[in-house]
């Protein structure tokens, strides 16, 4: 049986969170190499989240609400980066130590998956508790597209791979993701070791 995009997203996120918890142990037993291996595997699982999310949003959001609701959904990445910096700084400066932050994020991910598994659905038609009025509004705004007919459409892979704008977007996305990840990962260390700020000052943005 084919899993829905909503289920796939939960599975990939669950796998990523499962690998979050053993990072402190990997750092202790295998050093930086062990952590890098786990982070690469995490990235492979996380790479499926955005395509799955786009698929789910495309089946749920009316065109008139698509822009701002999508912005709210994907702003979670930035909010999460800010919140995780504060939380990790707090745990690192506490008697629990930095490993506690990884255990917390792993636990939060599992809790999220539980809620997602019971409250989400791939389409309005398959949601168990949506009202008839809301379902009718969403399906009507999307043109009541038939999943069976959509599945028969062929994907123009050749045209996509030959598209210059397509590759420009990919290159720009890679550059943006790399720089953002690098800054979020290394900025606390830079502020601590190069600028000389205490980890608690870095945690609360006192710089």
TrEMBL record:
<keyword id="KW-0812">Transmembrane</keyword>
<dbReference type="GO" id="GO:0006820">
    <property type="term" value="P:monoatomic anion transport"/>
</dbReference>
<protein>
    <submittedName>
        <fullName>Uncharacterized protein</fullName>
    </submittedName>
</protein>
<dbReference type="GO" id="GO:0016020">
    <property type="term" value="C:membrane"/>
</dbReference>
<keyword id="KW-0472">Membrane</keyword>
<dbReference type="GO" id="GO:0022857">
    <property type="term" value="F:transmembrane transporter activity"/>
</dbReference>
<dbReference type="InterPro" id="IPR020846">
    <property type="entry name" value="MFS_dom"/>
</dbReference>
<dbReference type="InterPro" id="IPR011701">
    <property type="entry name" value="MFS"/>
</dbReference>
<dbReference type="InterPro" id="IPR036259">
    <property type="entry name" value="MFS_trans_sf"/>
</dbReference>
<dbReference type="InterPro" id="IPR050382">
    <property type="entry name" value="MFS_Na/Anion_cotransporter"/>
</dbReference>
<keyword id="KW-1133">Transmembrane helix</keyword>
<dbReference type="Pfam" id="PF07690">
    <property type="entry name" value="MFS_1"/>
</dbReference>
